[in-house]
């Protein structure tokens, strides 16, 4: 690892100015990253990340190309993509602080900026806006890969023997709607208020709960539907919610989300793409809802609160990415066994 001088920093910043990360981080932001982190060089075919191993930070590619690979049943070690300058390596394991889901191998001579967790955590106190911008850039990459896997899964669903959604189910989904509920009618409201957002200060929690809406939703109620372009977040208070991919009247289940968990629509990050993950209650549920207007309000008026909510949105998208990757693997195994 190498610490850079001013001239070297400016040279690498110029490389990054030509990449998508410049949409979020300006020169001053990038200088902070370079001054407090190290540059790492890799030779062709050198392994940067090992699938299944925990990394204690994240790599930002400065120069070169990196092959993303994974062990897949029936195919062995398979190349699943190539990342170039301005892309992050290991974003899923970085956010979750768990094992890497893929391996990263230098396809050429590669230079990366190594950003450890220790520095990233310090950003919350010293440079919160830079941490937020980093997460914005990470989320765009996560959504981009999420869309790639989504489109692949949709194609596999069309070939797979997944049951069509029944006409009755479609009718139920169309007529069931969530209704506002008064906090006095929520059995464990005090617990929710005190325990569901432990990372918020008392003042931030007060602001949040003064602007959110609580909803009661029956079973099979669609909360975020196909084609929805408005940003929206929910926290499950009671009951459970199922995420799924719906296409050509077929439905593929992804995961079940229980009490205390926040989930966010893709539109929180990307409202231009045509793909959407559907969220539907799988039993009667009580939910805390933050609509697009409130998200914008927090973003404009309460920066510290917004940054913390954005952390949760990022975690929800990472969980969604992992769920759709697991579905992709399951469909692949079923296809392999046929």
From TrEMBL:
Keywords: Plasmid. It comes from the Bacteria. InterPro entries: cNMP-bd_dom, cNMP-bd_dom_sf, RmlC-like_jellyroll. Residues 21-141, 196-295 form the Cyclic nucleotide-binding domain. This is cNMP binding domain-containing protein. It comes from Legionella adelaidensis.
